[in-house]
TrEMBL record:
Organism encoding this protein: Teichococcus aerophilus
Source species, domain of life: Bacteria
Keyword Transcription regulation attached: yes
Annotated signal peptide: none
Protein name: Helix-turn-helix domain-containing protein
Residue stretches making up the HTH araC/xylS-type domain: 211-310
SUPFAM superfamilies associated with the record: Homeodomain-like (SSF46689)
Amino acid sequence: MKPSVVATGAFAAREQFDAWCAWFQGVFAVQPNGQEAAGFLASSTTWTLDSALLCRVATPPIKVKRDSGMIRRDHLDHWNIAIGLGGAATGLESGPRNHTVPSGVPFIISLGNPLSSERAADERLQLYFSRDQFPSLNATLDMASGHPLNTPLGLLLADFMKLLERNLPEISAEDQPRLSEALRAMLAACIAPTGERLAEAQMLTRLTQMERIRVAVRQRMASSRLGPAMLCREVGISRSQLYRILESEGGVARYILQFRLNEAFARLSDTGVSCTIATIAAAHGFADASTFSRSFRREFGVTPTEVRAAVQSGVMVKPRAKPVFAADALTLQACLRGL
């Protein structure tokens, strides 16, 4: 898939704000929160799916309003789930509801209701879909409209939207119907969870949680305290959930070690990295270079020194492939259980 990109940078500074307003075509009334004469550098990257639009929008400080006159003229009553990404909170007014929504927390608005919002310069991810796409969710969405989804499942939905954006370039036209069903299941599970809906979205939930774990491990990779307790706090899951999710990866400790070693291998293979092996070891959470070297050799069959020497001589080293048995081969454990 390829997105549609709209950006005001191609216009003269005095024309940028008008160009941005023209892109909205009356859906929203936009007012800058700064000096319009200084220019208005903004952009929108829009992915068109079978059932929704996913947009990444970057703007300077801005006020946005949708009033009853606009609603009468365009008859749009689509849903919009938005997430601030740049650290700026959003001041949101929807009917009698007023909220200050922190960055990273999704919130739901309906284009069928008057609303206004105000925020500083930031980027945001916005998911638009019509009431006709997922009619079974409309009553639930009406109840949640105008409210921040500052719950564990709401934050999980935010992570799912970010993961979806990262993977859209690889989505084919044939995948789109399945993507629509996955989106419906995830919205239902996160906005109005029931046992049945959570079960339906279980695989998507696991993939999203795996992505959150991966990000947390990458961010805390250098910390000697990186372990189950830290990951549970960072990801917002229980210890039993964490162990269950990483069971197929060999467990929590194995996952962290393998992640650190793979990242270190990539650093050693980068000809632009000139820091010492001891520095790389410390940056990836190893107490000393000797421990790092032993773990590295067990994992890849070569030492960090050998990888660096090969790369410097123009030879790219590939990690040793792990032996894999045929798919129908039984493990010793399986054989013993069959006795």
